[in-house]
Design goal:
It is globular, with a radius of gyration of 20 Å. It has 17 helices and two strands. It is mostly helical. Keywords: Membrane, Transmembrane, Transmembrane helix.
């Protein structure tokens, strides 16, 4: 029997999804890993194992359920880690990743926990995410005081691309930033190191305050901003994804990959929409092959992850900060829209947003945790003190 290869649109859809998912946010992931204690080599290990987790778990789920399960790394989780002011050892950081993965497994396999998490208003979770993203976007415009041409040029490219070719806006911004750096003679050769993917294990060492401060917010932003939208994308494409097994498997992939530096493997949303549409494959029953192609491309990226990490590390800090800020504008818009969509929960959302965005650290716990506390207090007061009847 002849083997039927997927049609050309399946390959192009998987290629574009990989290009957008990896290229658009890799600077943020590297910034996040180095901010929580990783060396360049350990960041390379982290990106390598993230790509492996995305590839292997995604291909396995797609083959098992015959639906296009597209995975990605946690972009909002990376933003949370990059914004953290808590000083971590790399061993403590890997414990944070592992704990977040365990929480995701518990939600996936325990219906009760899943229902409890579902009761957390999306407005509060999204407000916490918006507070995490805000400082990066503000820093973009602060940089305009010292780098006006760079910031102005990237902003024009970003806005024009968002109007005409929104799918490629971040890739165009990244290409423009690299070209600008090269024209100014600031594009230096990457530091020497491994070319091919390497895995450097680190024994996780738990720190209670760090686990409370970072693991819970990391778990929540990944669940609410990645896994749940990923399930919605699959349902919108006409599939019935088994939510529990899919969420538990992403948690297991995170847990297994955490000692090597993976901060979060989860369902994709934007890139998944590219691989689940009718344009990717006319036969919905065979569209899972698009996700398998996507997984194969991430395996190829894992092979060269350390070299890619060193290339981005060699870029000037202002360029990395500018690209990161622009990359997070769209997620910030989405988070703000969700956080303010329910009028009765706006008070809770705004105090969550402001507390998280403040960057406050108290009792060794970061602002994302205190943002959730502030939102929880506001929600409790709303229930205890109902509005008077008009």
């Amino acid at each position: 029997m002849a083997i039927r290869l997927p049609p050309l649109p399946s390959w192009s859809a998987a290629g574009i999804a990989t290009f957008v998912g990896f290229g658009g946010t890799i600077p943020l992931v590297i910034q996040a890993l180095t901010n929580v204690g990783a060396t360049v080599e350990q960041a390379g290990s982290g990106v390598t194992v993230l790509c492996l987790g995305i590839a292997l778990a995604g291909a396995a789920l797609s083959f098992r359920y015959r639906i296009p399960v597209v995975l990605a790394w946690s972009t909002p989780g990376a933003a949370l880690l990059a914004a953290s002011t808590t000083h971590l050892s790399w061993a403590a950081a890997t414990a944070v990743f592992a704990a977040a993965g365990i929480m995701m497994i518990v939600v996936g396999v325990t219906p009760l926990f899943g229902r409890l998490i579902a009761r957390l208003p999306a407005a509060v979770a999204s407000a916490m995410l918006a507070g995490v993203l805000l400082p990066f976007c503000l820093n973009l415009f602060r940089l305009s005081a010292t780098h006006p041409v760079l910031i102005g040029g990237l902003l024009v490219v970003f806005l024009a691309a968002r109007r005409k070719v929104p799918l490629y806006s971040l890739i165009l911004v990244l290409g423009t930033a690299i070209a600008w750096t090269g024209l100014r003679g600031e594009l230096h050769a990457p530091p020497p190191g491994a070319i091919f993917g390497t895995l450097l294990p680190e024994m996780p060492r738990a720190d209670i305050s760090t686990l409370i401060s970072l693991s819970l917010p990391l778990f929540l932003v990944t669940l609410v901003s990645q896994n749940l939208p990923g399930l919605v994308v699959l349902r919108s494409a006409g599939y019935e994804p088994p939510a529990g097994p899919l969420i538990a498997t992403t948690g297991l992939a995170t847990l297994l990959a955490a000692p090597f530096g993976a901060h979060g493997v989860n369902l994709a949303a934007i890139t998944a929409s590219l691989c689940t549409s009718q344009d990717a494959h006319p036969d919905a029953g065979r569209r899972w092959l698009v996700a398998v192609i996507y997984a194969g491309l991430y395996l190829a990226l894992a092979l060269f992850a350390p070299a890619l990490v060193r290339m981005f590390v060699s870029l000037p800090p202002a360029v990395i900060a500018a690209v990161t800020g622009l990359a997070l504008i769209a997620p910030l818009i989405s988070a703000l829209e969700t956080s303010l969509s329910t009028p009765d929960e706006r008070d809770a959302a705004i105090v969550t947003f402001l507390a998280t965005g403040s960057g406050v650290v108290f009792l060794g716990l970061g602002s994302a945790f205190w943002g959730l506390v502030a939102g929880g207090v506001a929600l409790t007061m709303k229930r205890l003190l109902p509005r008077p009847a008009s």
